[in-house]
């Protein structure tokens, strides 16, 4: 006889989301977590801790603008890194308290241990004391998260060679920091530690930073790197590292260049945590990186088993994982709900911030259809001029035939917040006229959407009658 209606493997943001939704739908839920504390990477090492660092860095940059308003500015102001870490710790404890309360109020059973499948409906859980417990349930959701990938032959040692997870728990700001990988996390950390006082070099094997993001976004971030004194080396990798007698690290880059630093952070991707699950016993095939394939309902190839979050190796965003897990729980409990990625927004916490949703210009053109792009610079917005935040742009991508918004990219002040407007516009199929004719509070940054839409509408009107059919 089954003790539970639903077993959720993983106690991170995805696992908690699935457990809560399952309980709301009447399921008796057991949530398994490898660690005693909940929250996973989002709470413990990633999203929340990194935002504390990001907030400190942004505050330091904003201090420099005080003279504009007659506020005395302390030249060369530096942050107390120890106090930043104290704030990080307090934030983590606060969130853990919130999660514990949610779990208790919703009567979700939690169990600490490492789970592996014995069959499609049976799990073996190895507890911290070495004992083994067997659990059975008609439905299971896998949400075991991911971990950083190390470079071949250069393992993480948590002293000199760090993963992004390690970087949020440093005891001091490194004087010299080498970042390997100019993806989202690499770029975020480059701005953060440059503002906190590090000399930063970023190396990237691809031909540009933020590969996969819109090219105009990548170009802006690259220009800001240069303005901030962050050195970016593209088409460059890390070949070998050596520890010097002084305790620093000497990095040999492809092409023969050497760079000496105090710390090296490697941010070249993440790998799903699925090895210990014995997926084969459940009949679930794993991909090359251990990822799990699911349908748009979050169901694996085995009925009754679902997966969500980083184990899918899709977007690896906590915001996406929470929604995927909710949908997995709803379908596990008999509903028929599909995941829609077309209107899922991205937030990149660089300086300036980036918010994106839908298609990039490159992807929109790949389809072969006509597109019309509307743009507005932050320097055209009264609010941005008032706030001395004129770096950035709005870029709206419309389908040439339907005139509907299919992609939006904002780089600048509050981008990660206001991109949700564009996400809703994509979801609802808003046309260029809909966005242009909105009434926007003045002065606000969001006015950029209206101005960019007006720019696109002008281009639509300039097209020939044949093009507008």
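Q: What amino acid sequence fits the structure above?
A:
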């Amino acid at each position: 006889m089954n003790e539970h209606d639903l077993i959720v493997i993983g106690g991170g943001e995805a696992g908690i989301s699935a457990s809560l939704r399952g309980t709301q739908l009447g399921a008796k839920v057991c949530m398994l977590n490898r660690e005693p504390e909940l929250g996973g990477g989002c709470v413990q090492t990633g999203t929340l801790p990194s935002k504390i660092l990001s907030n400190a860095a942004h505050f330091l940059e904003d201090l420099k603008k005080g003279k504009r308003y007659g506020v005395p500015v302390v030249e060369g102001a530096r942050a107390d890194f120890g106090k930043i870490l104290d704030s990080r710790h307090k934030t983590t404890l606060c969130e853990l308290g919130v999660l514990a309360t949610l779990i208790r109020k919703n009567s979700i059973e939690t169990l600490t241990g490492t789970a592996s499948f014995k069959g499609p409906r049976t799990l073996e859980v190895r507890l911290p004391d070495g004992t083994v417990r067997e659990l059975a349930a008609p439905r299971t959701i896998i949400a075991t998260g991911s971990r950083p990938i190390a470079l071949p032959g250069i393992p993480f040692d948590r002293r000199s060679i760090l993963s992004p997870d390690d970087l949020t728990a440093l005891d001091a700001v490194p004087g010299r920091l080498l970042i390997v990988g100019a993806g989202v996390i690499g770029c975020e950390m480059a701005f953060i530690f440059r503002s906190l006082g590090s000399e930063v070099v970023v190396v990237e094997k691809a031909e540009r930073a933020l590969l996969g993001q819109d090219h105009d976004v990548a170009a802006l971030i690259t220009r800001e790197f240069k303005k901030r004194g962050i050195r970016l080396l593209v088409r460059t990798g890390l070949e070998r590292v050596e520890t010097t007698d002084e305790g620093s690290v000497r990095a040999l880059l492809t092409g023969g260049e050497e760079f000496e630093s105090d710390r090296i952070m490697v941010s070249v991707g993440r790998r799903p945590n699925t090895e210990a699950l014995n997926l084969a016993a459940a009949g679930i095939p794993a991909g090359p990186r251990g990822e799990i394939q699911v349908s748009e309902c979050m169901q694996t190839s085995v009925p009754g088993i679902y997966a969500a979050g980083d184990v899918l190796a899709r977007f690896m965003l906590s915001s996406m994982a929470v929604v995927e897990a909710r949908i997995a729980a709803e379908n596990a409990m008999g509903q028929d709900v599909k995941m829609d990625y077309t209107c899922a927004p991205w937030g990149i916490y660089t300086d300036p911030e980036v918010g994106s949703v839908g298609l990039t210009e490159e992807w929109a053109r790949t389809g072969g259809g006509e597109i019309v792009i509307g743009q507005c610079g932050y320097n055209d917005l009264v609010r941005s001029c008032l706030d001395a935040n004129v770096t950035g742009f709005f870029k709206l991508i419309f389908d040439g035939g339907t005139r509907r918004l299919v992609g939006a990219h904002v780089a600048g002040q509050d981008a990660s917040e206001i991109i949700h407007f564009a996400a809703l516009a994509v979801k609802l199929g808003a046309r260029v006229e809909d966005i242009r004719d909105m009434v926007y509070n003045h002065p606000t940054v969001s006015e950029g959407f209206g101005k960019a839409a007006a720019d696109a509408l002008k281009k639509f009107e300039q097209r020939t009658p044949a093009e507008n059919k």
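Q: And what stands out in the fold?
A: The chain has 14 helices and 23 strands.
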